[in-house]
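ligand=adenosine-5'-diphosphate
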Amino acid sequence: MAARISSFLSRSSSSSFALLSRGTNSSLRRGILRYGTAASVEEPIKPSVNVEYNQLLIDGKFVDAASGKTFPTLDPRTGETIAHVSEGDAEDINRAVIAARKAFDEGPWPKMTAYERQRILLRCADLVEKHNDEIAALETWDSGKPFEQCAQIEVPMFVRLFRYYAGWADKIHGLTVPADGPYHVQTLHEPIGVAGQIIPWNFPLVMFAWKVGPALACGNSIVMKTAEQTPLSALYVSKLFLEAGLPPGVLNVVSGFGPTAGAALASHMDVDKIAFTGSTATGKVILELSARSNLKDVTLELGGKSPFIVCEDADVDKAVELAHFALFFNQGQCCCAGSRTFVHERVYDEFVEKAKARALKRAVGDPFKSGIEQGPQIDSDQFKKILKYINSGVESGATLQAGGDRLGSKGFYIQPTVFSDVKDDMLIAQDEIFGPVQSILKYKSTDEVIKRANNSQYGLAAGVFTQNLDNANRLMRALRVGTVWINCFDTFDAAIPFGGYKMSGIGREKGEYSLKNYLQVKAVVTALDNPAWL
Ligand code: ADP
């Protein structure tokens, strides 16, 4: 599976990648709405799933919110309501924390053998795999992501992540430590307890897996607060987890809003750990809520403005394709999007021409259609915010090469947009736009691009495109970011750690490093009667 995911992603990001380029041709044949056409978005395709789970999951049961309130979750293709979902708030968070506490303190989960926990996690993965297409359809409906992306990348990635963490469950152990003195010293690696988890809307399933996988493998119980824009897929997979044998109360899922349910979770006195993915502004609030309540341990995965550096030796066609993928993948809604495309002056003009042509070819339309590369943005707020940034790009003097407006008259579609002549001090080069807007900047030397690339409050990721080993080594060491992708981008296998330097976050998710987020270390010191036993 690892090979499958990474090879898909790297294929997706090269000029010869299979799925997306195949899509481009087939979409042409079918006359799908494409960027550049003036047609309105066609009648949305009816999804092949129904919404079966729309309540809160607390203590192994689906229940209404204590207040009885619900909120609509919307279809980004139209802005219309898909379903009404129970709206959890502080009281529901409290109910969920009580259930999680009980499951941790008295329930079987942390006391089960690691091998038993592993077998349940493997069954969770199997059931999700079995329901791949229903889950993918639900995710597309709720988030606007292309169905092929959900079905062929994101649900399989979820399965891979759970199998990976199941593999860790029985490999977590402490050390014996050679201390000075007549003591036998050992460390126990123990689960932290009740983990609060708050996830965003851009990768609802994948973010769920990044957080739930390691927390469960380490023996914690969980209260998960999903994003208000995308509550549906987490409820569906949680139902499968119960079927797989996860004991009641080990995983509780509360849909609801940030300032109510999210804040209640981050400030709850009986939550031992909070893991958050979202904006840097909200990350600061989470840290503050932890400090003001019980100093719960905090992991944060926040925003980015990642440089994608095209060196002078680049094969321009390949660089254009990879830079395009790095920015436009997932409608540009990636915290690590390569949103500052730095291009060496020697290849700049050719790159700009080809980047423009590639953006004009991007297949935008109903995400349920085969071959679609880009669906709508998540909601009206994001849609308006992106259009504002596009305006600011024009007003600040960047050259608009492609796009620049909405697409159609319905839903939240935006034309793939490319700016050249972008300067470092423009807002479009500094802020996280979180949309399909590529900003191309020219540079002259490696020293210069290192300085400019690092001149950001963020430090999440970077892309480097070069065949020159010295360039690659130099940039890889100099860039102050949590991930450097060299001649690839968005390669996200379960084993690869991910997280940010600077204001892009605290801690690492995925890989062995993520286990630290959900374990604490107990030192056990036993006096030895006879020093000769040492
Ligand atoms: P975005 O701008 O991408 O929506 P946010 O950081 O606002 O990012 O949201 C990410 C997650 O954080 C969502 O689940 C949201 O409900 C939650 N959230 C937003 N505000 C708060 C808050 N004040 N306290 C806790 N969680 C919050």
